[in-house]
Automatic annotation (TrEMBL):
PROSITE patterns: DEAH_ATP_HELICASE, HELICASE_ATP_BIND_1, HELICASE_CTER. Residues 122-289 form the Helicase ATP-binding domain. This is RNA helicase. It is an enzyme of class 3 (hydrolase). Residues 51-60 have a biased composition (Basic residues). GO terms for cellular component: nucleolus. The keyword Nucleotide-binding applies.
Length: 810
């Protein structure tokens, strides 16, 4: 309790004067030649038609009449300035888009800063191939620009694709825009994310994750189904959006002379305009500044920060939630940013527990988790209206950081932390680390408040900490394993990865590491002795069937040979999710011994991958029984449909709880399993099963993960990585092989904490992988020609230089 009170003093709004988010640098203006300029060059209405000029003046008049208060930022468009926020709603899209449905259901929304550049944007869109739109959070980029494209007539030649780094944003934006356009999802507006394609014949605007667009490019490299591609949140620099920008530039060149040229719109929230502009041959930049509502930012006060520890951010957040709850008006919901699912689940429990200590009459705190591994229907809970008498506290990872508007959020609490993976190319280790966010991320998080009313953001760090944050996020392409990306680019026709023109080029050692991995897996082979040009092998071509990393695809290809594809698909699907077994929660009354006993029942001495298979098979058996029982109950009219459904769901919950199985991860794994099976059917792969002959599956796993083979060294009680003996690891205590310590293992990944741990471990026969390891070592030491030949004979693949499908000239 003392800790609570102590922190309340630190962050009390009284002790810290609110810091309004006033821009400190002069706002760049748009000038027609597209170069941003810090001084206001004014040529007022040069690109605005008479008709639109009247409309603008009308809006301007409305704004003046309604006397907006507290404007701290302005919208600039060719020199026009107007104050905001505009508090009264104006009727927009329903009328403008002119559809019948839209006329019937006229949607009312606030005027947004983007409205002021609509005419100019339209002009750009019809006259230029590429446009860059830079705008503040909440200025209306994600929801309005696609609709402006439709109004500019671009949908006549194909769909408008809008890419998002995350599915949650793609789904929520599509839903919002469908409402604004007065249609159902799947009609004029739709979305396409993994496992859900909600588009139809009439779809004009398609929100997608950037990964889905990349997959589409693999099938149809010129993307000619789309007239326009909008890359949203380009500043996030996700791996997929950087790669997309690279291939779309080429795609655009190749479609330039056709009847259907490709239009590109790059949208970004921060001032990376120059970088994007340079990359896109000096494309014009449209700057939209200003957001709809002001947001006050609070930092931890340096005066009272004695004894305050930034690393206690979860505890500090709980104190802040309580403080805000007791001081903010009812109905002001809170969005909290933490780093990962376990942390979020435990924070939810703590916040739930706060309810017992609230004063009489206070609203109930309703914590809602939000992170990528949650099932989509559970993610949607965050967007539902808050029940009366409660305050919603959404606790999220950075998936709610960009593009997302959660109605009712008035307060953001920012831990200032994020968890990211960084790939060490030399040692081939993914290091998952919690670290400080960038200034750009802090700004984005703040921007989630003040979407539908003025907001507040409590930053759980001092202003001096903020000043030390990096300006931007490190682009993902500079910190991740590039092998999957290169495989996709080679499928698209890339031959020389070193000459790829990306917005930021990865380090040479990262490129080399990816090429070595792909060569060793038999997916590519060099076509010249300098090893600068490569071509996909027949096996590499098969890898591309699956939306998986190359080593996981390799497991499936091998399983096909071994006759155990059904088992391998189940295991590989489970490998794509987080742990299938839940961690025990503080509210669990079971003893450690009991928990241990439950977990042990799935374990096998063959390793964690077979354990995963056992979990999936056990749950499948349970579902079969449950389905039978429910069908019987329905036949005999035991209960009404609603009660049966309820009973069914309760039975699943109980089964998962009794067995410590994470229901969400189980569901995700089963969706991925279905997707992989569909791919197998499409590619006429016969469904084979090895029944209980699990050594076949282990062999397939070993061949896919052979780069992760380790040998036990009794002397120092550690495992040596065979392809790099300087690296020694321990088996993670959560593994079923952590006590038995077999002589040879492969693992799925390495985790670095205080110790270097191998996660998901399987027992193997060294003979299975020895030839591949030897060939890899040879490749590495540059005996390429010889070892490739040897490797090819070992894995019986043939070179596959003739590419059948249309390719991009990369
Ligand atoms: N689902 C929604 N419910 C209510 N209002 C919404 C919703 N989505 C968007 N809005 C309104 O539209 C405004 C603009 O949202 P939009 O996502 O287009 O902005 P943006 O410029 O893309 O911002 P960001 O980059 O921060 O996502 C929001 O500030 C909010 O007022």
């Amino acid at each position: 309790m003392e800790h609570f009170l102590e922190f309340l003093r630190h962050i009390s709004p009284k002790s810290i004067p609110p810091l309004p988010l006033t821009p400190t640098t002069p706002t760049p203006k748009i000038i027609p030649n597209g170069i941003s300029h810090p001084t206001p060059p004014i040529t007022p209405t040069s690109t605005i038609s008479q008709k639109n000029k009247k409309k603008k003046n009308k809006n301007k008049f409305k704004n003046e009449q309604r006397a907006p208060g507290g404007a701290e930022s302005k919208v600039s468009t060719n020199g026009h300035l107007f104050e905001k926020p505009v508090k009264s709603p104006v009727i927009l899209n329903g009328v403008k888009s002119g559809g019948v449905a839209a006329e019937k259901e006229r949607f009312i929304r606030q005027q947004l800063p983007i409205d002021l550049v609509e005419t100019q944007l339209m002009h750009e869109l019809v006259t230029k191939q590429t446009t860059i739109v830079i705008g503040e959070t909440g200025s209306g980029k994600s929801t309005q620009v696609p609709q402006i494209c439709v109004r500019a007539g671009l949908a006549a030649n194909g769909r408008i694709a809008v890419t998002q780094p995350r599915r949650v944003a793609a789904v929520s934006l599509a839903t919002r825009v469908a409402t604004e356009m007065g249609c159902e999802i799947g009609e004029s507006v739709g979305y396409h994310v993994r496992f859900e394609n909600m588009t139809g014949q009439k779809t004009e605007i398609e929100y997608m994750t950037d990964g889905i667009v990349l997959r589409k490019a693999l099938i149809s490299p010129l993307l000619d189904q789309y007239s326009t591609v909008i890359i949203d949140e380009a500043h996030e620099r996700s791996l997929h959006s950087d790669v997309l920008m690279c291939i779309l530039r080429i795609c655009q060149e190749q479609r330039a002379a056709s009847k259907n040229p490709l239009r590109l719109i790059i949208m970004s929230a921060t001032l990376q305009a120059e970088k994007f502009q340079k990359y896109f041959d000096n494309a014009n930049v449209i700057v939209v500044s200003g957001r709809t509502f002001p947001i006050d930012v609070y930092y931890v006060s340096p005066v009272s920060a004695k004894g305050f520890s930034v690393s206690d951010y979860v505890q500090n957040m709980i104190v802040t939630v309580k403080n805000v709850h007791l001081t903010e008006p009812k109905g002001h919901d809170i969005l909290v940013f933490l780093t990962g699912s376990d942390e979020i689940q435990s924070a939810c429990e703590h916040i739930q527990n706060l309810n017992s200590s609230l004063p009489a009459g206070a609203d109930v705190l309703m914590p809602i988790p939000l992170y990528a591994a949650l099932r989509p229907d559970q993610q949607k809970l965050a967007f539902r209206p808050t029940p009366k008498g409660t305050r919603k506290i959404i606790i999220s990872t950075n998936i709610a950081e960009t593009s997302v508007t959660i109605p009712g959020i008035r307060v953001v609490i920012d831990s200032g932390k994020v968890k990211t993976k960084r790939f060490d190319a030399v040692d081939r280790i993914d290091i998952l680390k919690i670290h400080n966010i960038s200034k750009a991320q802090a700004k984005q998080r703040t921007g989630r408040a003040g979407r539908d009313a003025p907001g507040k953001c409590y930053r759980l760090y001092q202003k001096s900490d903020f000043k030390n944050f990096d300006a931007e996020n490190m682009p993902e392409i500079l910190r991740c394993n590039l092998s999957a990306t290169f495989l996709e680019l080679m499928k698209l026709g890339m031959k020389n990865p070193h000459s790829l023109k990306l917005i930021d080029s990865p380090e040479k050692k990262n490129i080399e590491a990816a090429l070595l991995e792909l060569t060793s897996l038999g997916a590519i082979r060099p076509t010249n002795s300098e090893r600068t040009k490569f071509v996909l092998t027949e096996m590499g071509d098969k890898f591309c069937m699956y939306p998986l990393s190359p080593d996981h695809s390799r497991i499936l290809i091998q399983a096909q040979k071994e006759g155990c594809i059904m088992e391998a698909i189940k295991i590989v699907a489970a490998m794509q999710t987080e742990s299938m077994l839940s961690s025990s929660s503080s509210s669990d009354i079971r003893t450690n011994a009991e928990i241990e006993r439950i977990r042990r029942k799935f374990e096998t001495m063959e390793g964690d991958h077979i354990t995963l298979l056992k979990i999936v098979l056990t749950t499948n058996h349970f579902f079969e029984q449950l389905n039978k029982k429910t069908q019987q109950d329905a036949r005999f009219g035991k209960h009404c449909e609603k009660t049966l459904k309820n009973e069914y769901n309760q039975a699943i919950k109980k089964f998962c709880n009794d067995n410590f199985i994470n229901e969400q991860h189980l569901k995700t794994a089963s969706q991925i399993e279905e997707q992989l099976k569909e791919i197998a059917v499409q590619n006429k792969i016969p469904f084979s099963t090895c029944a209980s002959e699990f050594s076949k599956v282990r062999k397939a796993i070993a061949l896919g993960l052979f780069l992760n083979t380790c040998e036990y060294n009794r002397q120092d009680d550690r495992y040596r990585l065979l392809i790099n003996p300087a690296i020694t690891v321990k088996i993670h205590p959560s593994s079923c092989l952590s006590r038995s310590k077999p002589a040879y293992i492969v693992f799925s990944e390495l985790m670095k904490t205080t110790e270097l741990y191998a996660l998901q471990v399987t027992l193997i026969d060294i003979e299975w992988v020895q030839p591949l390891i030897a060939a890899h070592k040879k490749t590495k030491s540059n005996h390429i020609a010889e070892s490739i030949e040897r490797m090819n004979s070992l894995i019986s693949t043939e070179g596959h230089p003739a590419q059948k499908k249309a390719k991009l000239s990369l």
